[in-house]
Amino acid sequence: MAARQITRRDTAAAAREEGGGGAGTVTIPVSGMTCAACSGRVQRALEKEGGVETAAVNLMLKNATIAYDPAVTSAEKLVEVIRGTGYGADLPAQGQTAFDEQAAQDAAQAEEYRELRLKAGVSLAAALMAMIASMPLMASEAHGVHGQVSDPFMRWTMEWLSPALARIAPWLYATPTWILSYGLLVLTAGVMGWAGAHFYTRAWAAFRHHSADMNTLIAVGTGAAFAYSVAATVAPEFFLARGVRPDVYYEAVVFIIALILLGNALESRAKRQTSSALRALIDLQPKTARVLRGETEADVPVEEVRAGDVVLVRPGERVPVDGEILSGSSAVDESMLTGESVPVEKVPGDRVIGATMNRTGAFRYRATTLGSDSVLAQIVRLMREAQGTRAPIQWLADRVSAVFVPVVLQISIVAFVAWYLAADAAPGVRAFAAAVAVLIIACPCAMGLAVPTAVMVATGKGAELGLLIKGGEALQRAGDVTTVVLDKTGTITEGRPAVTDVLPVDSEIAEAELLSLVGSLEASSEHPLAEAIVRRAKEAGVTLAPAEGFQSSTGRGAAGVVGGRAVAIGNEALMADHAISVAPLADAAARLARDARTVVYVAVDGALAGVLAVADPVRESSRGAIARLQAMKLEVVMLTGDDPRTADAVARTAGVTRVVAGVLPEGKLDEIKRLQTLGEVVAMVGDGINDAPALAQADVGIAIGTGTDIAIQASDVTLMRGDLRGVVEAIALSRRTMRTMRQNLFWAFVYNVIGIPVAAGALYPVFGLLLSPVLASAAMALSSVSVVANSLRLRRFQPVH
Fold first, then answer.
1. Mean predicted confidence (pLDDT) in 512-536
2. What's residue 157's pLDDT?
3. What does the DSSP 8-state code read for residue 447?
4. Which pLDDT score, from 0 to 100, does residue 217 have?
5. More confident call, 676 vs 145
6. Rounded to an integer, what distance in angstroms lies between the CA atom of residue 63 and that of residue 149?
7. Among 217, 375, 640, 795, who pairs with 488 as Cys (CB 3.0-4.6 Å)?
8. Cross-strand pairs, 682
9. pLDDT given for residue 138 in this prediction
10. 325 pLDDT above the threshold of 90
């Protein structure tokens, strides 16, 4: 894979920024799309529009996400472009949050499912009525006048059931055949005009815009069958005079429409399940919050909470909005955010996230980010944006769907002509059945759903695992990764220094006393190492006293008086400044330095008192995660700005065999480029501002969610917990998703490649088999449902650590 350097979108955005312009992005709901041909037509129209940089039309979400230059075009004009292709489009309502947009989408999907379910149920009942009414026609001596059933499958079924029906309802066989024939005509017309009306209106809209889609195939197939049947019913003598039987297809038309609607209903139900993870996230947010107003506690709708409000949370309740703890402490379950089931201890000053679960204690906190700025809203927004993107593998389905319907129409005509000329008996009937079967069995829907359904389910599953995957392109690239480059600080390591060793020089001063003296002195310092020393002293439970005469020496350390004793803490140079020999601890210091620990000497009252070792410890989970990446046949590289000795020590602890140390941000960027020129597909994992260029250059940028906003913005995948196991999960999920996409595309293509020739009669010369249009419609319905069902299997993905 080529290196992801600067995309067309990046170039255009940069040009606009230089020119003082601003980028425009809009997501427009599109109604009426039913197959890959539909979404492809909208996509091509948008891409041809001037000022459009990127356009992603999503058949699953039924929307188009467009990045455009406002100086050239506008959102209103883009709506007109979509309408010009024959589909409905309107600008989204202003001021909607991601929650509102998802709720509107859920409501639309639920209404679509209810409508399809009703139409499918009524149509199936009508189809059974049509089949029952057709049986007396087959048994009647007058069937030659009013037409008989022509679909071979339906004829066989009715011949098998007819004797039983004659015993149960003999009155039906006494009904005049002309009443049955015209009754079937009216029943079929009713089903076509109500349950199947959208097939014909959409096909007509596509025709008016010089295009064709799945609706065209259904409308032409069933419309031709119905027109033929009406002619055979109204004027049978015309057919008989020319030696052609006046056969009818009423029950076949009704069954075809019923089975396609049944497939659409099952497909709609399955598609709703693809966004279940997103709905589950939204449902976690409480509806109310307990707010302190003056001295009174009041339960108010969460929408009415304002920044600065004091919110009370009791054990077992969900945190209603984001905020910062003022008083109290607790353990909060943040698994909805991070995927980590172990509750996180929270104390005053800590941040809490809305929709997380408070487990043990009660606390009060100040509300901070609300509404669309909240963490949950941003996660929902990122997920919706990700689900609206297109994976590169989609191009194959797009190219095929662009010519699919016209090719199928031509195959149908060829099948009709071939059968009409070659059939030894009833050529017209067989030719017509073959042509209709070809039109009905062809299914561009499965191709259009193959990729977006997998993207939707995978991004939802990723969110459950604490992974925010920014779209189908990132999902596909992650599966192709061959090399994982890891930043050291904050990625492999904890990201904050900690005291690892406390070694008094002799027994005259105890470890606790040593920690009390250095902790008291360093409490006046702002140096990161000082913070680690003070934290260790507090953890040891020692008493800290105020320091007097504090003096800091840049690059050396600090000195002062604690409890009447002169204390100096720093490196060997500071000890030399105070004429203090470090020889008694030279061997211990050398050993600590070899283990990549920073050595800090302590002198008390002019004499060496001890030595401390400070290091950034390796995360507990890092070694296991790195071993898992290596087991997945991935090359793991550690990239750091630290000196080689420190880097090598960390690498040994973490299990990394390849280290690039002592590099600045530009050097990290160059190393990523070098790996890419060697043909590697590189994933970069980092958390700092200095990692942002390398994250953007890598084929897949993975940001630790505890890191800075700029690193997260530059990444393709964000890990919501500071844990390298998320990298393993992201790559494993991507690989599984790509397998699912390929399976979907394979079956979608194979279904059409095999099904269309079979429907045309390819098996008849050898096996004597001719596919019924009714069976063709059942196969068509099954193909789309099977693709969605296969994608839904991703919900059961479980990472192995």
1. 88
2. 67
3. H
4. 85
5. 676
6. 43
7. 640
8. 483
9. 63
10. yes
Sign of torsion over alpha carbons 261, 265, 266, 267:
positive
Q: Are 417 and 718 in contact (CB under 8 A)?
A: no
What confidence tier does 343 reach under pLDDT thresholds 50, 70, 90? confident
Comparing CA positions, the residue from 99, 735, 108, 109 lying closest to residue 384 is 99
Beta-bridge partners for 327? 364
pTM over 0.85: no
The β-bridge partners of 68 are 24, 52
| DSSP character string of 275-309 | THHHHHHHHTS-SEEEEEETTEEEEEEGGG--TT-
Catalytic center residues: 487
Residue 255: CA count within 13 A, CB half-sphere: 24
> Which residue in the block uniquely carries the two structure tokens 């409490």?
523
The mean predicted confidence, pLDDT, of the chain is 83
d(CA 760, CA 748): 18
Q: CA 79 to CA 166: how far, in whole Å?
A: 58
Q: Where are the beta strands (DSSP E) in 605-699?
A: 607-615, 635-639, 658-660, 682-686
For residue 457, the number of C-alpha atoms closer than 13 Å in the C-beta half-sphere is: 27
Long-range contacts of 645-648 (CB under 8 A, 24+ apart): 645/593, 645/594, 645/596, 646/596, 647/488, 647/596, 648/596
pLDDT above 70 covers a percentage of the chain that reads 89
Q: Helix count (H) and strand count (E) of the chain?
A: 31, 26
Specify the 3-state DSSP secondary structure of 544: coil
Alpha-carbon torsion angle 351, 353, 354, 357, nearest 10: -100
Residue 690 CA, distance from chain mean position: 28
Distance CA 261, CA 558 (A): 79
User: Does pLDDT of 412 surpass 90?
Assistant: yes
Of 398, 43, 116, 119, whose CA–CA distance to 271 is shortest? Answer: 116
Provide mean pLDDT across the span 423-444. 81
The owner of tokens 């095929």 is: 400
| pLDDT at position 215 | 86
| Residue (of 378, 334, 375) closest to 721 by Cα position | 334
Q: pLDDT for 476-497, tens place per residue?
A: 899 999 999 998 877 888 877 8
Report d(CA 506, CA 553) in Å as an integer.
Answer: 27
- 29 forms beta bridges with 63
Q: Rounded to the nearest 10 degrees, how much is the dihedral formed by the CA atoms of 72, 77, 78, 80?
A: -150
User: Taking the CA of residue 555 as centre, how many other CA atoms within 13 Å lie in the half-sphere pointing to its CB?
Assistant: 2
State how far the alpha carbon of 3 is from the alpha carbons of 11, 467, 671, 696, in Å: 15, 23, 12, 10
CA distances from 784 to 86, 114, 341, 696, 774 (A): 23, 18, 37, 37, 16
Q: Is the predicted pLDDT of residue 650 greater than 80, yes or no? A: yes
- 152-168 vs 250-274: helix axis angle to the nearest 10? 100
Side-chain half-sphere CA neighbours of 501 within 13 A:
21
Sequence-distant (6+) residues with CB within 8 A of 134 are: 149, 154, 158, 180, 184, 250, 251
706 pLDDT above the threshold of 60: no
Look up residue 227 and give its two tokens: 């027109």
Q: What is the mean pLDDT of residues 418-425?
A: 84
Q: What is the mean pLDDT of residues 453-465?
A: 86
124: tokens are 């199936």
Lowest mean pLDDT among 47-61, 107-121, 305-319: 47-61
Look at residue 348 and give its three-state secondary structure.
coil
3-state helix, strand, coil in the chain (%, to 5): 55, 15, 30
Residue 558, φ and ψ in degrees, nearest 5: -150, 160
Across 661-688, b (16+ Cβ under 10 Å) vs e yields bebeeeebbebbbebbeeebbbbbbbbb
For 721-775, how does the pLDDT look when each residue is reduced to its tens digit (9 = 90+)?
A: 778 899 999 999 999 999 999 999 898 888 888 889 998 988 888 887 777 777 7
- Which tokens belong to 256? 């075809």
Structure token pair of residue 549: 């005469």
Q: Is 634 in contact with 481 (CB distance < 8 Å)?
A: yes
